[in-house]
Amino acid sequence: MARNDNSVNMKKTKDSYHHGDLRAALISEALKLLEKQDLEHLSLREVARNVGVSATAVYRHFPAKDDLLKALADHGLAMLGAQQKEAAAKARGRLAFAQTGRAYVRFALANPNLFRLIFAHMPARTKPGAMSPEGLPARLMQDFITMDVGPKASTEQVFLSALRAWSIVHGLSMLILDEQVDRKVAEGLIDRVIA
Amino acid sequence: MARNDNSVNMKKTKDSYHHGDLRAALISEALKLLEKQDLEHLSLREVARNVGVSATAVYRHFPAKDDLLKALADHGLAMLGAQQKEAAAKARGRLAFAQTGRAYVRFALANPNLFRLIFAHMPARTKPGAMSPEGLPARLMQDFITMDVGPKASTEQVFLSALRAWSIVHGLSMLILDEQVDRKVAEGLIDRVIA
DNA sequence: TCGCTAATGTTTACAGTGGTAACATGGCGC
DNA sequence: GCGCCATGTTACCACTGTAAACATTAGCGA
User: Fold this and answer.
1) What is the CATH number of the domain that holds B26?
2) Where are the alpha helices (DSSP H) in B37-124?
C-alpha cells in the first residue's frame, strides 16, 4: 500500500470527529496555498492534508474540485472589486477611473495565481448586451465609462469603450504575469499605460 | 492490474520497432489534440497512445512533458507570427499595423488552447530594454510602432506604445476566450477596438 | 559482410491525483 | 434519551507523469 493514500495525517490538537467549519477552512487553506504555488500544483489532497482532514471529506462540501476552485474565484473576485473600489475612492473623475485600472493590474501582480484562477473559472458571467452583472469589477468600470463617454453615448459606444479599457488592463496584467514583457520595466510604466 | 498501463494499443499497420520520426509525430498529434481539448486534459499517455507508441517512448525525445509543451508553443508562435505577417502584407501604414493586431486576436479565437499554451510556457523571452527577440510577433509590432511613433521617439516611448498595443490585443483575446465578454458581440467589435 | 554500439522503444513499477462507495461518528431535534 | 442525517473516514479505482531496466535495430567501422 502506498504510504500516501487517503488516510492523511490528522491534526492532533483536536480529536473531534467533526471539524466545525470545514468549508471555510478549506477555502482559506487553498487561498494560502495559492500564494505560494500555482493552480496546477494545487491538489485537493494537499489542502485536506493541511487542514487536517481526510481527502474525501472535501466532497461533503464541494461536489468536485472545480467547485472549490469556483469558490476561490468568487473570493478573489470580491477582493479585486474591493481594492478597485478603494482605489477609486481616493480620486475623482477620470483619475478615479484610471485608479481602478491600476488597482486591477496591481492586484494581478500581487496575487498572480488567484488572478489567473478568477479568469480561468468564471465563464458565462456575461449576457449579450450587458457587459457584466452587478458587483463585478467590470461593472465598476462600466459606470465610470458611462460617465466618461457621456450619458448620451450609444450602448455600443459604451461597450466599446469599456471593452478597450478592460482589454488594456487585463492584457497588461497577463503579459507581465506571463513574463512576456520585462516585469521591472513594465511595472514602472503602469501609470503611464493606463492614463 | 489496471486495464490501462503503459502497454497501450500499438499500431498494427507497421510492426517496425522504430517509428521513423516519432518526435514530429508526437508534436503533430499533440497539436491535433489541442484542437479538441484544452491543455489540462492533454496527457502524454494519450498522445503516445494515438501515435501508437508506448508512453515512455516520449521521454526519448522530450526530457519531460513540459518540454513537449514548449515545442508546441514554439510551433504555435511561429504560426501566429506567420499569420500576422500575412495579414500585414495586405495593407499599408497604420492599417497594416492594425491588421497584425486583428490577426493576433483572430488567431487566439481560432486556436484557443494553442494560444493559451504559447503564453503559459514561454516566459523569459524578453530582456530588459528589448521588448522581445527576433521573430516574435511582438517584434513585428515593434517595427510598426517605431514607424508609427516616428523614428525620433525615445526608446521608452516606443516601448510604451508597443506595450499599450500589445496589451489591447492580448487582453481582448483573453477576455473573449475566458468568456468574460460576450463572444458574438466582442467578435463584431474587434476591428473597432483595434483601430 | 559481420558485429558492436548508440539511439530508440518497451515493460514494469511507483507515487500522486481526482473521484466513488461503503462505513463510522456524533450533534441536534423529537 | 434516542435516532437521524450531516459530516468524516477507509478502501478502492482509473489515470497521470516519470524512473529504471530491458529489447530491438539502424548504421558504422573492421
Assistant:
1) 1.10.10.60
2) 44-51, 65-89, 93-110, 112-120
